[in-house]
Every structure is written in C-alpha cells, then in structure tokens.
Task: structure prediction
Amino acid sequence: MPRHYFPDSVVQVVKKGKEVSDTIWHRIQEPRLVNQLGDTVTFDSLRGKILIVDFFFTRCPTICPRMTLNMKRMAESIHNGKRVGDKTNKKVHFLSISIDPERDSLERIKHWADRFQVNPEQWWILTGNRDSIYRFVLEEIKLGLIDGEGVDTNFVHSDKYVLIDTNRRVRGYYSGLDTMELKHLSNDLVMLTMEKDPNRKFFLSGKLPILAFAFLSALLGVFLLLFFLKKNR
Result:
C-alpha cells in the first residue's frame, strides 16, 4: 500500500493482549474554496472519495498547461468499471487549486476549465482566499517539505500531484510531468481503492444480539411447526 506521511503522534495501545505503538497520521484540514461552477465547497463534500490534488495558476506559461493535460488524461482513463451506460468514476475526485487567487477570479478559472473541457462531476478547478490556500499548501499538504526548491511562502510553483486517501491523509507525491511517476500514481491509486478502511464498521457491528434473537425465534418456530404437524398425524 502507498505509505503514510507526517505522523502527528505515537500512542501506546493494547492489541490482542500486547502493548504496541500506534502512529496517528496527520489528517488534513481543508480550506473553503469556490469551484468553476461558482459553488462554495470543502473536501467534506467529497466524503468517501480519494483525492488527487495539484496546484496551478491561469497565467502560467510553462508547466501548468502540461500538468492540466496530464491530469485530464488520467481523469478520462478512470471510470467505474461498467461496460455500458454511465461510466463516470465515483471513487476518485480531482482538484486543481489556484495559487494565484488574487488574479484567478471565478471567470478565469471557468475559462481554464472550459479550455481543457473539465468535467465538474469528477474534477474541480478551485480558487479562494490566498491565505487559506497557502496555509493548506504549506501546513496541511506540507508541500514545502517535499518540493523545497519550487515552494516558498511567497509563491508556490510545484509540479507535484498529491494523493489523499478517504481519511484525508497524504499518501503520495508525484511529478505531474514525469511519465514513470504518473504510472506510479496510477498503481498507488488502484491499491488505495482496495485498502480496508480501519474506521469503517463491520456491517453486522451492533446487530449480533438482534440476529441471535431472530435465529433462535426461527428455530423455535420450526420446532413448533414440526411438533404440531406430528401431533396432527
């Protein structure tokens, strides 16, 4: 499975009678942003989905158009597995966040989305408050620790795609311009879709007493039915 990043703490817990160390991994706090449709959104709107995030600005003459094209190819390659009908992927959502929000107004990000024919059902182009976005980049995604050369507190310009799991923990950084790293991201994404969620309860959790009562009631019913059938004979 893709590795975890940035432990917040390590605690001692008892598992199967043994005391073991358990790492509490950093869970990102998302900013409130505006997408290309003009909707105010948070990542909480995408609960249960894996996220692939990158950062761009519409005036960028170098890497941003290439990164957006590569993300478009990836978004179009992922579907829900159906052979016919609506093949829209339901498990993964793509986010491109402007790091020049003072210039990238709603009109400009909508133009960017239209330019690359972005499907808003699976990919949001986002803008918002600059301080919130930079705090997210530097303190939550912690991009500066991974890509120090292209990241500073004044202007972020990174080629990284960031993989975030359904528990909102960072699981990988990949160059959006490197074919091998994009393949690595695709492989990690497949693995992540199969990962068991430790916070998800077993579907029978809390229902066993009820099921046991129903089972015993059914046995009693069968016993009484056989008893009366035998008596009638």
Notes: Residues 27-193 form a domain with the Glutaredoxin fold (CATH 3.40.30.10). The two ends are 64 Å apart (CA to CA). The chain has one domain: 27-193.
